[in-house]
Amino acid sequence: MRGISHTVKKPYSYSCFECGENFFHKGEFLKHYRSHTGEKLYSCPECGKRFTEKATFSRHQRLHMGEKLYSCSECGKRFTQKSLLVRHQRTHTGEKPYVCSECGKCFTQKRLLVRHQITHTGEKPYSCPECGKCFTQKSSLNEHQIRHTGTKQFICNECDKCYVRKSELVDHQRSHTGEKPYSCLECGKCFSRETYLNKHRKTHTTVKIN
């Protein structure tokens, strides 16, 4: 097979011709080598999406089945992927591991940090073809374009109220479920929205001057 260097001294050792990385098992090598070739052996029968690794393919299938193996020990909420659980748990702990090197601001998710860093450069690569307004993120452009059409595509299945943004729908749905995933580390009080929690936190830090 092209790409394999088979040594005599170590018959179970495989070396990648592309990058030089070594492997003791053929399976590990083949898995690695597909990262160079882009070969995707695993195809989802539901949506046709393809994957290079079986583990990633299995995680994807759980999205279709709705299987939620990972549960939060704080509130009991369940998730299809461990990474989603870890991200959710930060709403309880307040952990923000991603730090901006420019201003020191911290974030719970890497994508939020990347989005924030654009504010320092001022770059706005996404422009609206209707009005020419520019945006730092494609998602912001997409939301903006919906405002031109007036479409409210996110509908509450409880009361049929409609929203332009999915985040607005999620916030609204908590008024039906009573879910309050954002908790204060100082006093334990819980809130349905992060903005409410941030506003509440200021009551702990405010200094009263007589």
What does this entry show, briefly?
The protein is of the alpha+beta class and 210 residues long. The chain is built from 7 helices and 15 strands.
CATH architecture of the largest domain: 2-Layer Sandwich
Along the chain, the helix and strand elements come as EEEHEEHEEHEEHEEHEEHEEH
Q: Regarding CATH, which class of the largest domain?
A: Alpha Beta
The count of DSSP E runs of length 2 or more, i.e. the number of strands, is: 15
Distance between the termini: 80 Å
Mean pLDDT: 81
CATH topology of the largest domain: Double Stranded RNA Binding Domain
Beta-strand portion reads: 15-25%
How many domains make up the 3D coordinates?
3
SS summary, helix count: 7
The helicity comes to 40-55%
Q: What low-confidence regions span 5 or more consecutive residues with pLDDT below 50?
A: none
Instruction: Give the full name of the CATH homologous superfamily of the largest domain.
Output: Classic Zinc Finger
How would a crystallographer describe the biggest sheet?
3 strands, antiparallel
**Major sheet: arrangement of strands:** 1-2-3
Q: In one word, what is the shape?
A: globular
Radius of gyration: 24 Å
Helix/strand/pairing class, anyone? alpha+beta
